[in-house]
Amino acid sequence: MTSDAALVRRSRVHRSGRERTVRQNQVLLASIVLLGSILILALGQARSIEAFVGGLALVFVATGAALVVPWGRLHPAVAAVIPAADIVAIGILRHASPESGLSLLWAFPAMWIAHMYGAIGTVLAVMSISALYWILVAIQPSSELTATTLLLPVLVGAIATIAYLAARRSSAQRELLDKQTRNLERAVERARRQEDIVTDALDAVDFGVIRISPDGSLAVTNEAHARLQRARANGADAVAFGADGVTRLFEDEMPLTRARAGGLFENELVWYGEPGDDNRRALSMTARRIQDVNGHDAGTIVVSRDVTREELALRAREDLVASVSHELRTPLTSIIGYLDLTLDDETLGPAARRSLEVAERNASRLLELVSDILTASAESRQGLDISIDPHMSDLSEVVVASIEAVTPPAGERRITIDASGVEPSMAFADPHRIRQVMDNLLSNAVKYNNDGGHIEVGLTSDGLHAWIVVRDDGQGISEQELPRLFERFFRADAVRKTTTHGSGLGLAISRDIVRAHGGEITVQTRAGEGATFIVRLPATDRSGEA
Predict the structure, then answer these.
(1) First CA to last CA across the chain, in angstroms?
(2) How far is Cα 6 from Cα 399, in angstroms, rounded to an integer?
(3) Whole-angstrom Cα distance, residue 466 to residue 395?
(4) 208 three-state secondary structure
(5) CA angle, 73 as apex, 70 and 78 as ends, to 5°?
(6) Neighbours of 310 (CB within 10 A)
(7) 274: exposed, middle or buried (Cβ count in 10 Å: 0-12, 13-18, 19+)
């Protein structure tokens, strides 16, 4: 359909161009003939007035036909009648006034025919003009053979040849231009189809897409973005809060404002609406830089997704876990306390004591799980960060206390603990939180070690940092599971062949505690070769006090 329309359009252009060429060439020739005729008559150079008027009349008849006849609707060959009539009319005028130089006007119809009818037309025009010229020379006894007489046909032929070559170049350029135009039309059509497909695809997805030009203006938005804007408008669109839902964002902190200024971010959570508002919406927004095919900056793409349901469900789950865990802690503490009091009774029988010890160990383990869950809930991005109270402390006391607490369960499995590498080391840290880290590391070293295994614990300081090292010779961790070791609820049970189960929160909580101190925890391990955990903590406070 598009190709046929283009062909029809080009055909119309060619027809109108042929009509315009016929009219322009003939009007130009008629104007020159009229001007020359006035001069010839004024100078009295016309030998035969009748012949002169006849030739002049033939020119103006041809001009009238050029202006009236719709040449674009006729076959192109029909238009040759006009330049042929001009050749005859110029011959008559030349015969009526040989000295006037009207022979030069033959160059006009010769160029016209060469331009419109190619090589064959050029040859025919030159031969016809030359033949007519020599006939006129022959029938005029007073004509003298001069260089001008001989060169005139050559001059007309040269002009016609130049016109033919120029027309040929013009035709080649026109064909090339037409070909490029067709290619451009096809490219534009493909681009339009691709744009329609992309637009339909963007409108079909349920997340908003905004393209920002390099100058910061909005270039493209999809229907989903408009829906999100309408959903925001139902609430308090003027106010926005950070990921915690309570920190107010100013205008220059808004994701779209930052993206228009060139900022980039990934999965940034923004709450629109006041806390407690039923119409409050949560959007997860990402801004990434894009480039064109030449690698130049093409602006920024901002993707926004409504995550209100997911965030509310996550909050509800965490609130439930925190509430249940908090409610479990009190009765568990009471149970453990009464079990300890009962175990202190010297009259207790051996069988009953063993049963109560089993119950006490499991109750203690359950209390540890509840504490881990509470800690994980407290440090979630919807809750509070881990609170620490750092001050200058001797970490050796913390490490030794943790070793003493883990010695009994290690002794039951004949696991030895070497604490000879523990040196007095001062650090700017929260002893209670570091004790939690040490309990997790040593508990894992015992639980996931082999019976009869060995654990080494070291502590030292270089003046800038305090270093804690816990090394075991257990079964280690595979390279595939190592990247996920500090994730919440992840346990490398596939490698650690043991019946001991845990929550998978200990290492995640330990890492967050160490990072809250401004330190870092790393691990060096290979499957079957044990694991070495290294904890780095600052040895001074922010003011530089040692």
Answers:
(1) 84
(2) 86
(3) 8
(4) strand
(5) 80
(6) 12
(7) middle
Number of Cβ within a 10 Å radius of residue 155: 15
Mention every residue, 6+ apart, whose C-beta is less than 8 A from residue 438.
Answer: 398, 399, 402, 468, 470
- What CATH class does 391-538 carry? alpha beta
CB atoms under 10 Å from CB of 111, counted, come to 23
DSSP structural state of residue 535:
E
- Measured distance CA(487)–CA(510) in Å, rounded: 11
pLDDT value of position 454: 93
Q: What whole-number distance in Å separates Cα of residue 420 and Cα of residue 267?
A: 47
How confident is the model at residue 380, as a pLDDT? Answer: 55
Q: Are strands 520-525 and 454-461 parallel, antiparallel or unpaired?
A: unpaired
CA-to-CA distance for 404 and 399, rounded, in angstroms?
A: 9
CA angle 523, 525, 527 (to 5 degrees): 150
Nearest CA to 377 among 309, 321, 327, 332?
A: 321
Give DSSP secondary structure letters for 388-438.
Answer: ---EEEEHHHHHHHHHHHHHHHHHHTT-EEEEEEE---EEEE-HHHHHHHH
CATH topology for the 313-378 domain: Helix Hairpins (1.10.287)
pLDDT recorded at residue 422: 92
Phi, psi (degrees; rounded to nearest 5) at 458: -130, 150
Question: Token digits for 325?
Answer: 């865990």
Considering the domain 208-306 in this protein, what is its CATH number?
3.30.450
Whether 6 and 185 have beta carbons less than 8 Å apart is answered as: yes
How far is residue 94 CA from its own chain's centroid?
75
Digit-coded pLDDT (tens) for 196-221? 776 666 666 667 777 788 887 776 67
pLDDT one-digit tens code per residue, 289-348: 888 777 788 888 888 888 888 887 777 766 666 666 656 766 777 787 778 888 888 888
Residue bearing tokens 């681009």:
191
Residues 319 and 370: their CA atoms lie apart, in Å, by: 14
- Please indicate whether the domains covering 313-378 and 391-538 agree at the CATH topology level: no
Which stretches in the chain have pLDDT values below 70? 1-17, 141-148, 195, 198-206, 219-220, 222-238, 317-327, 329-330, 365, 369, 372-386, 488-505, 542-546
Structure tokens at 510: 């330990």
Q: Where are the beta strands (DSSP E) in 208-296?
A: 208-212, 218-221, 240-241, 265-272, 281-291
**The pLDDT of residue 455:** 93
Which residue stretches of 140-222 are H helix? 147-204
Distances (CA, A) of 236 to 244, 284, 302, 374, 494: 17, 17, 22, 33, 50
Q: Please check whether residue 59 is in contact with residue 105, taking contact to mean a CB–CB distance below 8 angstroms.
A: no
Domain ranges of the chain: 2-182, 208-306, 313-378, 391-538
Instruction: Check residue 204 and give its pLDDT.
Output: 65
The torsion angles phi and psi of 357, rounded to 5 degrees, stand at -65, -40
For residue 284, the SS3 value is: strand
